Automatic annotation (TrEMBL):
Family from the record: Belongs to the BABAM2 family.
Subcellular localization: Cytoplasm; Nucleus
Statement: the UniProt record of this protein carries the keyword Nucleus: yes
Organism in which the protein naturally occurs: Tetracentron sinense
UniProt xrefs under Pfam families: BRE
Gene Ontology annotations for the cellular component aspect, listed alphabetically: BRISC complex; cytoplasm
Source species taxonomy: Eukaryota, Viridiplantae, Streptophyta, Embryophyta, Tracheophyta
Listed GO biological process terms: cell division; chromatin organization; double-strand break repair
Major location (coarse): cytoplasm
Signal peptide region: none
Keyword list, A-Z: Apoptosis, Cell cycle, Cell division, Chromatin regulator, Cytoplasm, DNA damage, DNA repair, Mitosis, Nucleus, Repeat, Ubl conjugation pathway
Name of the protein this chain belongs to: BRISC and BRCA1-A complex member 2
Amino acid sequence: MIWMTVGNSRSKDLTELEMLSEMVTGARFKEILLVLSWSEMMAVRGCDDEGRKRSSISPVTSPKNITQNREVSKLSAIAMAADTLPPLIAAQLNYLLTHSPHSVKVDQIWSGCKNSNLPDRFTLLIPFCLDYIKWDVIYNAQYPLVAPDIIFAAEDDIFHPLPFTGEAEGDVQTPKSSLCDWNSKDPSRLLSLIHELRDLYTSYQRKRVGEVDDDRLKFEISTIISREGIEMCTGGGIEKAEEVKFAVPLLDMDLNKLVHGCPWRHQQKIYLQVVYPVIRKYSSVPSAPRVKLVSSSELKALFSIEDVKLPPWLEGMCLAEYLPTLEETLKTQVLEAVASIGVRRHFIEALAPLFGRPIEADPVFCRKATVLAASGVFTFLVHFFLPTQFPKQQPVLMLQSSQHFNSQGTPVMSPVLTDYPWSPRWEVSQMAERIFEFLVEECLNFKKYCNETLLQQR
């Protein structure tokens, strides 16, 4: 913490701390002051354990190093289902949302009876080919032991996934469906049903793509069909299809295991979306497909696919030729992103000798840290936001007052600060020192900004 004045006696130290506690209305800082030990009080005032003066500018050591960000739980579809659906149906839905390897979402829940307050049906958003398909799951609240009906989208009117058990084509028997011997008391049955239908839907879409009259598409499919996890779909009917989309999983590596202690519940993947325009017989030269990298939003904490420069698609190139070069580049950048976590962690550790221990820090990806600082009796927080490209890209700083609040009751914040001395070639200790020196002056400007903000509200 930046502290501009230093007391000369123990009684004065306590008096100013008590006064500071009264002035600071932020609940977090009040809690911090309540648990300060004597040695920590002396650290606040720049003195040693005997009350002797140490320096004219010294850090405040926070009483507690909070190494994890507290995640605020949100109202999820799981909780909503448990509160509104009949118990047996809720158990099925909760199990699906909790245990599915796909990020299945609930779009809406409603009742099949106009005069009933007991909902018994819902719409699922199921990930497929880097998009979502909507399926309505129809239970009957009056007969909760009966298996549900599934209603597919109107454009999939020819999708008939579950023929009657025992129907045969020649001597081949149809596999047994999850709907057979339905057990409503087994919460995993809906999960099994949805996964079975999704697998059948994947095969259905692959068959439709294969029926599109385009020689280039047929060749592309033949070269990558053996690749595990690839999905494809048509944009419209087979006769009117204008384009065909491919979702190609990249990197044969477990991204979740690369980051120690990562909070990801679903398996993280990076995909290449390839969109081929359908070539008619009368067309001349086939145009290059549109390509784009896609990943889950959670992966952005580690690695931003927007920083990847896609290799050019050369004339006459096929997808099987394009993928190896892309994957090699992508793998290198992902491993560099994992290694940069350690660099960011060392930078956050380098803040402690100058600012005191951070009161908050991101322990997994080391993307954020917050320290408590003061100039005289003006106390404020310094938020550090570290980019994935650190140290090539410098941290973004933001100051937050502990004593000034706007008309909505929220603390006054500074604009983002990036105009300070920085070089990616410096040692992390020098980076922290230069930021500290910058903030010694900048905190005075911020205090003036806070006071002007309050005057404008009057």
